[in-house]
Design a protein that fits this description.
CATH class of the largest domain: Alpha Beta
Strand content: 15-25%
Bound molecules: iron/sulfur cluster
Radius of gyration: 21 Å
Number of domains: 3
Structural class: alpha/beta
Number of helices: 12
Number of strands: 19
Helix content: 25-40%
CATH architecture of the largest domain: 2-Layer Sandwich
Length: 456
């Protein structure tokens, strides 16, 4: 799982392209049904599902805060958002959902500003959103008892370029720094037929790009008849929906990539050449203390193997800086991984202890040193991304437009491309963006349309 945090700089779509209401922000909230989403793509997908249930139940003036528990900071920000929202609109009911609500419901139930607390299973049921008078204020069941995953078919994400769809939930691993399994339960998969139906419906409604998401998507399938792998799901999906122009995956565990996925990577142009790897560190002893399933040599081997099959592929990765006991020498192994694996998109986290996890009981690295190491990783990642961006100048590709005059290349590079509505595929030549300057948010690259014609 990518332990991404809402405000971590990353190649994720910008907030205005996030599905499911708005990402967490400090701006005063407009009236009506609002959803503030923290955390990962799965949470954004689920926010879209909740919005449909809430609207169908006639909930037209409420604030839903869909929390994240990946760091104590994420939980603190959710509590801060609750207090702020209540000060802004004391009469509006606040409903708290998500992993922080699942793991510590009493904490939110104890806040007078909170009207209701819903667990991660409950939040996705229509029943939970029925008239609140006869609903329990706190509805949070034991997530570890969840054994199946009901598909939540949606038609699309409002004016969104890409759609995140859930194919998997929960995790059977127990990495020593991670609290997620206690918020999401054990691994379970959406049946292939439902995933295909979901994608077909999205494509019929104009979606050009789908991102398969979950908690640990490479563990897709063992709970389904025939135990299909993630690669088999992807192959079947692309065959069953030939109209789908572009497919991406959310973060994957490199050591669990199967032969079918490698086959698709090598042979399917609609499978985007951009993989985000949950690597976490570059030193074997630290990886062992994290209880990860791979070693440094595995990460290098997998990246080399994939690049040989798909030379235009780019890699992103999650890296934790300052994991307990990490020495400067061990940190250097993580730093060197950027060049050795050819990583260009980094999600970097200064280690944050989570109460109840084994790593929180290990000898800790001083917080300032964690932050300093995280800054060095980010700087190296930015340099790698800048070098890759430079190497793309003069190349040609099909870019997918988003809101705000930006488009994305197959490698997910942002390209300035004004004058096109969101959700269009345009053939472009990659050029330097003259409007880009230090300090402005303009992408460093621009797309020069090769013809007036929009591909689709
Ligand atoms: S336990 Fe490990 S694999 Fe599972 S969600 Fe957490 S970090 Fe990911």
């Amino acid at each position: 799982m990518s332990i991404r945090h809402a405000n971590t700089p990353s190649p994720e779509p910008p907030a205005n392209d996030q599905p499911g209401a708005e990402a967490h922000s400090d701006a005063p909230l407009a009236a009506g049904l609002r959803i503030q989403t923290f955390g990962c793509r799965l949470n954004f997908y689920e926010s879209e599902v909740m919005r449909r249930h809430a609207e169908a139940a006639g909930l037209d003036d409420a604030l839903i805060i869909n929390t994240c528990a990946v760091t104590s900071e994420a939980q603190r920000q959710a509590e801060q958002a609750i207090r702020r929202a209540h000060r802004q609109a004391p009469e509006r009911p606040i409903i708290v959902t998500g992993c922080a609500a699942q793991i510590a419901p009493e904490r939110f139930a104890g806040m007078p500003q909170v009207a209701r607390v819903l667990g991660n299973e409950e939040k996705l049921t229509a029943e939970a959103w029925g008239a609140s008078d006869d609903q329990a204020r706190v509805q949070v069941n034991d997530i570890m008892q969840a054994t199946s995953l009901a598909p939540q078919l949606i038609d699309g994400f409002d004016q969104q370029t890409r759609a995140f769809i859930q194919v998997q939930q929960g995790c059977d691993h127990r990495c020593t720094f991670c609290i997620i399994p206690y918020g999401r339960g054990n691994a379970r998969s959406v049946p292939m037929g439902d995933v295909i139906e979901q994608v077909r419906r999205l494509v019929e409604n104009g979606t050009k790009e789908v991102v398969l998401t979950g908690v640990d998507i490479t563990s897709y399938g063992p709970d389904l008849p025939g135990a299909p792998s993630l690669g088999q799901l992807v192959r079947r999906l692309l065959a069953a929906v030939p109209e789908l122009p572009r497919l991406r995956l959310s973060s994957i565990d490199s050591i669990e990539i199967d032969q079918h996925l490698l086959h698709v990577l090598a042979n399917e142009p609609r499978f985007m050449p951009h993989l985000h790897l949950s690597l976490q560190a570059g030193n074997d002893l630290i990886l062992k203390r994290m209880k990860r399933r791979h070693l440094r040599a595995d990460a290098l081997r997998v990246c080399r193997q994939i690049r040989a099959l798909r030379p235009d592929v780019v890699f992103g990765a999650d890296l934790i800086a300052g994991f307990p006991t990490e020495t400067e020498e061990q940190f250097q192994d993580s730093l060197a991984l950027i060049e050795d694996c050819g990583l260009i998109y980094l999600h970097v986290f200064p280690y944050s202890e989570r109460e109840g996890t084994p790593a929180a009981r290990m000898p800790q690295v001083a917080k300032p040193l964690r932050k300093e190491r995280a800054a060095r990783l980010r700087a190296a990642g930015d340099a790698a991304l800048a070098a890759f961006s430079q190497s793309q100048i003069g190349s040609r590709c099909t870019a997918l437009t988003e809101q705000g005059g930006v488009a994305r290349s197959p490698q997910f590079l942002p390209l300035a491309l004004p004058g096109f509505a969101a959700g269009q595929l345009v053939e472009v030549e990659v050029q330097t963006n003259a409007a880009a300057a230090p300090g402005n948010a303009a992408p460093s690259l621009a797309g020069q349309p090769l013809s007036a014609a929009v591909l689709s």
